Each structure stands twice: as C-alpha cells, then as structure tokens.
Amino acid sequence: xxxxxxxxxxxxxxxxxxxxxxxxxxxxxxxxxxxxxxxxxxxxxxxxxxxxxxxxxxxxxxxxxxxxxxxxxxxxxxxxxxxxxxxxxxxxxxxxxxxxxxxxxxxxxxxxxxxxxxxxxxxxxxxxxxxxxxxxxxxxxxxxxxxxxxxxxxxxxxxxxxxxxxxxxxxxxxxxxxxxxxxx
Length: 184
Hints:
By secondary structure, the chain is mostly helical. It is built from seven helices and five strands. Strand 3 and strand 4 form a beta hairpin.
C-alpha cells in the first residue's frame, strides 16, 4: 500500500507531524482533505481538517491575497443568517473535536487547559466572528460540514479541481484500494 503521508507531505510542501487520515479525495484519487488528531505532541491541536490539494490551496491563496478574509469578516458582521450558520459551524467543529478526544485520548477529558483550547472556534479562534484562513473553512465544507465561508469561497472558484492531475508529479503512486478508505 502507498504511504499516503508522503503524498500529503508532497502536496503540503512540508513534513507533517502527528496522526491523520485522508477524509476526502479528488476524482484523480489523490487526497483533498485530511483529518488530524486533536492532540499533537501532547498538546491541544484545534485545527483538525486540512486542505491538501495544491490546486485548491493555490486558488484559495490567491483569494486571500485579494483581501477576501477581510471581506468575509465584513459579511459576518452584516449578514445575520450567514453569521448564525458560521456559529453553528463553530459548534459542530467543537463537538467533533471532543468526540475525537473522547475516542482516542480520553485521558485528556479531565484537563481544563486542553478542554479550553479544544472548545475554541474553527482553527482555534477565540473571536468566533473572525476568519483565521479560507483554506481551513474550505476543508471543513469539503468534509461535508456546513461552513458558509467554505461554501462562499468554493462558489468563487470556477474549476473545483485540476484537469491534469497535478499530484501525479509527486513520485508516489496511489493504489486503487485507496479510493475506498476516505471519511468516517
């Protein structure tokens, strides 16, 4: 079986620490979203969904450089329905983090410091009306959770994935069995 860690590290351009698994794949079979443990090196790690697709990461990075983080924070302030959906997304992420903690690291359930950190918003934000990064919200939305920021950003991208399977450029191959190992 292929070492998917190597593929994801190639996609992200860095060595990854901690445990993760592929949560969603593109039509070419490569990882698009991973889910990681809520604990990393014995410390709380609130960012559990990561966007790995280099094509989407670049497209979304371009939107960030055009000021869309600020534009979305303004939308959160102006649009009550949008803001309420975002608050629900924060709640759902906290629920998922605590579920993962209970399942994999029950010994941390009594640690107030860990619980405080893991009960923060998406990406560990304290102010729930701020946006840490667009990539994170897109990863959450692609993972099947209702995230209005992720949905908004994806509507701005005309092609949802590359046409040339750019991840084939990495030297690691995907095995056909990998297609059946995503999600929960």
